[in-house]
Amino acid sequence: MGFLEAGTPLDWESSQAVLAYVKGEGIRQLLHLYHLNKDRQDADVMWGEEIEYSLVELDSQQRVARVANYADHIIDELTVREGMSSDDKSSKSDWRPEYTNFMVEAIPGSPYNFGSLDEVLEIEPSMNLRRSKIAALLNANQRLVSLTAFPHMGVKDFMAPPTPPCPHSGCSHSVFLPDAIMSPHPRFGTLTRNIRDRRGAKVLILVPLEEDENTQKRSQWDLSRVRGELSRYEIEKLSEQTANPLRNYIYMDAMGFGMGCCCLQVTFGTPDVTVARYLFDQFTVLAPLFLALTASAPFQRGLVAATDTRWDTICMSVDCRTVEEMDTIHKSRYAGVSLYISNEEPLAQRVSEYNDVDVALNESAYQQFVAGGLDPILAKHFAYLFIRDPMVIFSDKVEMDHRTNTAHFENIQSTNWNSVRFKPPPPSPDGTSPSQIGWRVEFRTPEAQLTDFENAAVAAVVAVLARVIIDEKWDLYIPMSKNDENMARSSQRNAVLSQRFWFRHDIGHNTSNREYSEMTLNEILFGKALLGFPGIMNKCKEFIQREHEAGKCSAATLERLSEYMAFIEQRSTGELMTTAGYLRQYLKSHPLYQQDSVVPTAVGYEIADLAAKVGFGQIHIPEILGSFRPSFRPPPFSIPTYPSSPPLSPFAASRIKIS
């Protein structure tokens, strides 16, 4: 979830008195950080990943799955145990709260060495360890899953302990989600309330519904209206009478629907600010591809969506724009990147060609950044972030030393949730020297996968891509308008096979061939012979082989990365399904499904049960994993075998193999 500060938060009305001051100090803090770190060179850089898990509770009598809203207690206990452990740092883990109190963010206790490909061997065991540590604290009827979206989020009786929503009080005013769904840290409730107050209405989440033959025959759509007939305020009013105010759309009205989704994020340290800016740009082009590749969220609020990912839901769930701002600010504060930021060729002489979308700027901030020593390209990036208001200001932390505290900058930075994030170093304790941590780039689009094998494969492949991009100076630039199209396409149903993405024909350094066209995901990753394009994964394979031949990576690493890339290839060809594709197929072929776009409660139960078991390697789903057999390696303490778990339903048992 990002930056967590403690203190007494101001409501939206009270924050108006200090809003301009906080933004001004944020600018000042950033400029100080930049000048302290702009010339730094870091020889040994690190990287890391973070995976978000969900806690669920299974009621085997009623065959109902509920989110288990106890993550704060689990995190407290995990933190205490880590502090008491005598294990070395590599065996420890860090734990963070997320927006919803059924989610746990799990981070390796120590980062991986970016300069060593052999470090990828540590990813999957580390994920095994973190999964096991959490699960070891759960009750007999509780489960841990790495499921991107809980299928029945917001449906009656979806949460344990049971808590009704409060549509006319509290922070969210949701007709579906109680405020108790949020983690208890004051930031989350304040962020929710202030976004609602700033926009003058609840958040409006409208995800296209996938209609089936019996969908419109159901009475739940009787009061629904056509989109365009009602204002956001009228939709909100109608939602008090029907859960489905708009025909052909899944309606949701709270931040928790988006921020309650789980993902995998990977962050890389870089040698200097120039490399960080360049890597940010290249990752921007890759971000939609990995969203499509990891698509895992076909069900929203108990209904079947016409999209496969969390992305649009989460973008709309934190959209603070007023009606008037919609015409000038074209994206939510959670969205795809809007500007490339490198100060080198090939962008420097083609800025207008590649940054070809209309972007609103905080002009005052832009002038201050330029006057403060930022080049116009980087100044524009930060001025774009500063069109947003800080949403959580703590009354006792308005005044601070801009040299040692960057909370006001982070207030803006951490609530611009873009597909890739450019991260300046944190402040040092004395505020007069560079900090130990340097410039970083965060890759943010991948959705959480069901197994540690899949999540490790995605993290490892992104890490190899980062190495090769930097070493070989790839040129992936396409116009930002085309990248926006790629982002939109990446969430479409079965985008891996149904969509084509804009991509360069030649990605070599200093190439004169700047042509680009639409390609399938498999062609981008593994080559298109007609264009003479080798594919970015094949170029990575060549790099790994050279490293191995030079004695820079082990045979075990070569074998593991070959396995991960083979898995990615089979998914890109459709030989293996995405999680979203599998879940759709599971539902459509289930005897309880009524061809009405509704996910039966018992099917949601089975999905949660399957997700828990496949995560621990207790069952195998051939459609997702094929011949790849994740070898779950538990740590030297017991993990739950779920002895009280009832047998799989006959239908579920027919779909999987017991490991």
- Radius of gyration computed on alpha carbons: 24 Å
- Secondary-structure-derived class: alpha+beta
> In percent, how helical is the residue content?
25-40%
Strand content: 5-15%
Low-confidence stretches: 637-644
Number of helices: 23
Average per-residue pLDDT, rounded, comes to 94
**Biggest sheet character:** 10 strands, mixed
Overall 3D shape = globular
Between the first and last Cα atoms, what is the distance in angstroms? 35 Å
Record field, number of beta strands: 20
Would you give an account of this structure?
The protein has 659 residues and is of the alpha+beta class. Helices cover 37% and strands 12% of the residues. Strands 1, 2, 3, 4, 5, 6, 7, 10, 15 and 16 form a ten-stranded mixed sheet that branches. A two-stranded antiparallel sheet has the order 8-9. A hairpin with a 2-residue loop joins strand 11 and strand 12. Helix 8 runs parallel beside helix 15, helix 11 runs antiparallel to helix 12 and helix 18 runs antiparallel to helix 19. The protein starts with 11 loop residues before the first helix and ends with a strand. About 1% of the residues have low confidence.
